Amino acid sequence: MIAIGPTFRALLRNKVGALLLALQIALTMTVVVNAIHVISSRGDLMSRPSGLDEANQFYLTSTGYASNFNEALVVAEDLRQLRALPAVAGAIQTNATPLGSSGWSTGLSLSMDEQASGVGAAVYFVDETGLDTLGVKLIAGRNFRANEIGEREKNAIDWPSQIIVTEATAAGLFPDLSPAQVVGKSVYISSTSQTTIIGVIDRLQAPWNGWSGVERSMLIPQRTLFGSSRYFIRAQPGQLNQAMRAVQDHLDQHPQGRLIRNVRTMDETRARSYRDDQALQGVLWVTMTALVIITALGIIGMVSFNVNRRRKQIGTRRALGASRNDIIGYFMLENLLTTVVGLVLGSVSSILLNIWLVDTFNLPRIGWLYLPVAMLLLIVVGLLAVYGPARKAAAISPALATRQ
Amino acid sequence: MLVMQQLTKKFRTDDVETHALRDFNLNVNEGDFIAVTGPSGSGKTTFLTIAGLLEDFDSGSYQLDGESVQGLNDKALSRLRNEKIGFIFQSFNLIADLNLFDNVDLPLRYRGFNAAERKRRIEQSLELVGLQHRLKHLPTQLSGGQQQRVAIARALAGEPRFLLADEPTGNLDSQMAQSVMALLEQINQRGTTIVMVTHDSELAKRASRNLVIRDGRASEQVVNQRAVSQFASA
User: Fold this and answer.
1) CB of B147 within 8 A of CB of B137?
2) Which residue, A87, B3, B86, B129, has most beta carbons within 10 Å?
3) What's the number of domains chain B is made of?
4) Taking CB atoms and an 8 Å cutoff, what residues of chain B touch A10?
5) Cα(B85)–Cα(B161) distance, rounded to whole angstroms?
6) Could you report the predicted ipTM of this complex, rounded to two decimals?
7) CATH number of residue B89's parent domain
């Protein structure tokens, strides 16, 4: 028996308790909707591909300490020997890694005018094996040739005459051109050095995941002579551990006046890079779960109180022909009505909070699906919470209850 | 139409077993107005709750309107209770949060009548008890006698064949008690069978049959024929 009218009218005559519960549900919905939205947004950010073959890649830092340390020779010899290891698919010297939190960036523009509009892009120094070792995909133009790879001193300010850029960098510079049309175009690095885009790769993220230009990067065909450099190594598929052991063993056996440190996989780097986001997600999940549990307990408490308060009424309803299921249904319906009021209020406050979050923290707007999903979740939680006390109500002896 | 044979009901605690009803026999005929009396703890209320299908019994048999109630599940018992039995309680048992219309509406909703049929029956039964103009009032806005009239209207709305009344005048002053009793007699004259538990011997005398329960057993007393005929013709 569904008696929405009488049940709603009866609720209105006891509105304080029902209204407080509805407000609690509204608050819970507001927090749940926006928390799920933030969790989901962070999840989207965290799941962005870096462009690398992360599962098979690691890197380490090589720093020369010996007075006779000849970086150019040592690096060249190291890379030659590392590339010969069976578990290693590729090895390059570079200055930074995507998601690594530190690296270089510089401006690219279409003229030498410092005031000219341009885009910032992360800088990665690579050689002719860079594309394969990084695992990035060339979508237009060509790769660097071996004879195009130069050397770069620490204080150098010049830039080479050829670069490869990501598709996002190309789009930032030439919004109306396709990647293929961008190949051959001249641009200026730091408004000083003219260079030509010889290739476009699909994706290679910058080291800083929170940067709005994270998808903009460029590859520079230079070996660095900075005294300390990063070896970026790609293992054969599925042989990351073997490759890491083999590389470290090899470098340990051939010290050559340099120190090896910070050996780290790309999986670790990704985890470290998004540690704060993961922590935020965890905190929001805990907060949201706790709030839902508190709301469920509130419903259980409220319904249990109502069951005890209405024992005589329950007995009377049973005497008038209500079955046990009717009694359960009565409490379910009553709670559902309270929940619906809370959800309507919660929908409004969820949208208002989201507007504030969008304005204040530049978060994206919530998708329309969040509201019905949160409503469904809270309805299910409400019905589950009310079921226990409602069953107890249905089990009350009508013979005793009517005599109270 | 209500036949109880060798009915037994025991209540057990950890230490004590109490026979509320023992070898209880009763045959209620259509149109009877039975007053049930007896000392406190004799088993009157237990009889009434078993008769009203609110409580089960340990042994014996109980047939309501030709149908054995033994072994029926909750749904079947609820349906039987809703269709054949109307309850009147000493303390009225109106639902305080519902107005008169919604109170009387309750058993009709459980029956599954449509809205128009429910409205017709609610108005008809409230008119019978003289409260048709107070549909939207809450029970607390009525006197005790009026509340009991509403309870009677609620019991009658489904047109049950039995009315089970547990001390229906117990919470009313004598004037209101007389009024409610007159209403019950009127209902009985319209063909509804009434079984009424009462402590009031004067009211009991106005019933067509008097049943006395002592120590869980029923015995019938000779009816005051003059009182019956006097009130039957009223």
Assistant:
1) no
2) B86
3) 1
4) 95, 97-98, 102
5) 6
6) 0.90
7) 3.40.50.300
